[in-house]
Design brief:
The structure holds 2 protein chains of 2 kinds. Chain A contains 13 helices and 12 strands. Chain A is an alpha+beta fold. By secondary structure, chain B is an alpha/beta fold. Helices cover 34% and strands 27% of the residues of chain B. Chain B has a 6-stranded mixed sheet with strand order 6-7-8-3-9-10, sandwiched between helices. Chain B has a 4-stranded antiparallel sheet with strand order 2-1-4-5, covered by helices on one side. In chain B, helix 3 packs across helix 4. The chains are: A alpha+beta, B alpha/beta.
Chain lengths: 418, 222
């Protein structure tokens, strides 16, 4: 009865100061919605990667430069930039010596510049080969991928990512986002000549929009050129990755060992490379993403702290304003703890309402993000529960000081208060 | 047996090094059914005595027996319970909560009373409001009521937990003469029905309603 009555009283107090209560809630609303959004975003990206990796299949092995332990620690992704110890010769040796491999492809990532008419962009250039297509990493939307002939004959052909396609051919139309228009733009791109590092290339195909790439970069802003041309252009045999597909999934450990032995022999017992399964890649990505998510969530929770301070501030004002009410309540039989509970419940309800609205806001924000970007944020039940927990916690923690102040008021003084 | 027995009751306020004796060794018995007027000029200790009787304040020394039980040393929580169940306050400035309706204000003490079920309490509040002539105005907020009506709501609030004593501190101080007399008539009627009433006032006219008078001067009963 008293508890219910306190809740009713709290709503009455909040309602009678609508604007003030809302402004107080705003701090919590912003705090909770940003915390939830960050968690949802992290979860969405993680899910996207997991899906992609699962789609590629678990029979893929990736050879990269540098010693990387499976949990993502160690000297990390050194192989991504700078000098790579994995070479074209390694790739050839693997193809020649290892049995049980259905596809193998070397991959070289470099920065380059691309010109089309008066437009200029700086895409990630990927020196690739025909087998990449069978590795399920990229899916062609329009046109075709590079084939063996393109690579062997050094044909100046390229395949471009969807972002690049949009950048070069998508402009001038307000309704780019509409599927039909986008398709038409892609069709237009086929056969167009672009200049990369001073050489003329012809666009063979446009890739599907990928939410996230399992290879660890944005596939949408990539341009794939034949690796033979890339090797000449940049005068290097260094590869960013060697990708191989094992024929029989159950044989993957055996193949991995064979590749390891071969690589170790070729690198003269210097283990300056790593062979990762998709599971390794996944757990690496996972730990990096978790770290980033935790960091962003941490930053977002600062706003929650500010929201809590806002509640405390307004509750202190409210206690002072209602000094006489406190006096009356005590005179008619309220104990100190009755008064304490009343103000505590009020603070918790303000915070909880803020939390509820914040979750709603994060949900709407999530819908917008998934509508306009390739990321689809996922608000988990855990995140919602956490947000509610945090809001109550914030309300109670920051409501305690004002509530104690209220409960300790001397009834005689309080009744005399003007 | 007296309803209230005060013996050697003193209240001393400390203001830095200075000690101010607000009430000095007061002896006072109030019997059930009494209608007592406490009179005296301002600063004579009327309000201090009232606050002590109403358990809003603790005496510095002395004994206070309510229904033969010593209440001077009760804890904060126990005193709140006694205030809720045994004492009804009527203030000079009404002290109604502005957000609540007349009925809401009257049932407010029931919030803190575990012994009376809500349903019963509400019925009781309505019948008391009817008795003080406000049955038409139970849904009105205090700012929609006249001063006299507000004080009648306050009296109803004081009565709702069926206390043994009503303490009224200058109940007519903020009212015009006519409303003031109405309020005193209500208190008189309650007294005739058996309620014990203590009124603090400095107006002779108001004090005349009481059956017994005490005068305070410089913290002493004279």
């Amino acid at each position: 009865m008293l508890f219910l009555e306190s809740i009713k009283m709290a709503f009455r107090a909040i309602w009678s100061n609508k604007i003030r209560s809302f402004l107080t809630m705003l701090g919590v609303i912003i705090g909770v919605s940003s915390v939830i959004s960050m968690m949802a975003m992290g979860q969405g990206v993680k899910q996207g990667i997991t899906d992609e990796v699962t789609a590629i299949g678990s029979n893929l092995l990736t050879v990269v430069s540098g010693k990387i332990s499976a949990d993502g620690s160690g000297q990390g992704m050194a192989g991504m930039a700078g000098v790579s110890s994995v070479t074209w010769q390694d790739r050839k040796a693997i193809e020649k010596n290892i049995d049980g491999i259905s596809n193998v492809a070397g991959l070289m990532m470099v920065q380059g510049s691309l010109d089309y008419e008066d437009k200029k962009t700086m895409p990630t250039l990927v020196g690739g080969e025909a087998d990449l297509e069978f590795l399920n990493l990229y899916n062609i939307k329009t046109g075709r991928f590079l084939d063996n002939e393109d690579v062997e004959d050094k044909n100046y052909n390229i395949v471009i990512g969807s972002t690049i396609a949009k950048e070069l051919f998508g402009e001038g139309s307000a309704s780019v986002s509409e599927e039909a228009t986008a398709d038409k733009k892609d069709e237009e791109a086929l056969g167009k000549k672009v200049i990369i590092n001073g050489e003329e290339f012809e666009i063979l195909g446009v890739m599907e929009t990928e939410s996230m790439s399992a290879v660890g970069m944005d596939a949408n802003s990539m341009v794939v050129i034949p690796i033979s041309i890339a090797r000449e252009m940049y005068d290097t045999d260094q590869l960013t990755r060697i990708l191989l597909q094992v024929e029989d999934k159950d044989n993957i450990d055996n193949v991995k060992q064979q590749v390891y032995d071969l690589m170790l022999k070729r690198h003269k017992d210097n283990e300056d490379f790593s062979i990762l399964t998709q599971e390794d890649m996944l757990s690496m990505m996972d730990s990096i993403l978790s770290l980033i998510t935790a960091l962003l969530t941490g930053i977002a929770s600062i706003s929650l702290l500010v929201g809590g301070i806002g509640i405390m501030n307004i509750m202190l004002v409210s206690v002072t304003e209602r000094t006489r009410e406190i006096g009356v309540r005590k005179a008619i039989g309220a104990t100190n703890s009755n008064i304490l509970m009343q103000f505590l419940i009020e603070a918790a309800i303000i915070s909880l309402m803020g939390g509820g609205i914040g979750i709603g806001l994060a949900w709407v924000g999530g819908l917008l993000v998934s509508r306009f970007t390739p990321i689809s944020p996922e608000i988990t039940l855990f995140a919602v529960g956490l947000a509610f927990g945090i809001s109550v916690f914030v309300g109670v923690v920051f409501g305690v000081a004002p509530a104690i102040k209220a409960s300790r008021k001397d009834p005689i003084e309080a009744l005399r208060y003007e | 047996m007296a309803l209230i027995e005060l013996k050697d009751l003193s209240k001393i306020y400390k203001m830095g090094d200075l000690e101010v004796t607000a009430l000095k060794e007061a002896d006072l018995d109030i019997n059930s059914g009494d209608f007592l007027a406490i009179m005296g000029p301002s600063g004579s200790g009327k309000t201090t005595l009232m606050n002590l009787i109403g358990l809003l304040d603790r005496p510095t020394r002395g004994s206070y027996k309510l229904k033969d039980e010593e209440v001077a040393e009760l804890s904060q929580k126990e005193r709140a319970k006694v205030r809720n169940q045994e004492i009804g306050f009527v203030f000079q400035v009404f002290n109604l909560l502005p957000r609540l309706t007349a009925l809401g204000n009257v049932i407010l003490p029931l919030t803190y009373n575990k012994e009376i079920p809500t349903r019963e309490g509400i019925d009781r509040a309505k019948s008391i409001l009817d008795k003080v002539g406000l049955s038409e105005r139970i849904k009105h907020k205090p700012n929609q009521l006249s001063g006299g009506e507000r004080q009648r709501v306050a009296i109803a609030r004081a009565l709702v937990c069926e206390p043994s004593i009503i303490l009224a501190d200058e109940p007519t101080g903020n009212l015009d003469t006519k409303s003031g007399l109405e309020i005193m008539n209500i208190l008189e009627k309650l007294n005739k029905g058996g309620k014990t009433i203590v009124v603090v006032t400095h107006e002779e006219e108001i004090a005349e309603y009481a059956k017994r008078h005490i005068k305070l001067k410089d913290g002493k009963i004279v």
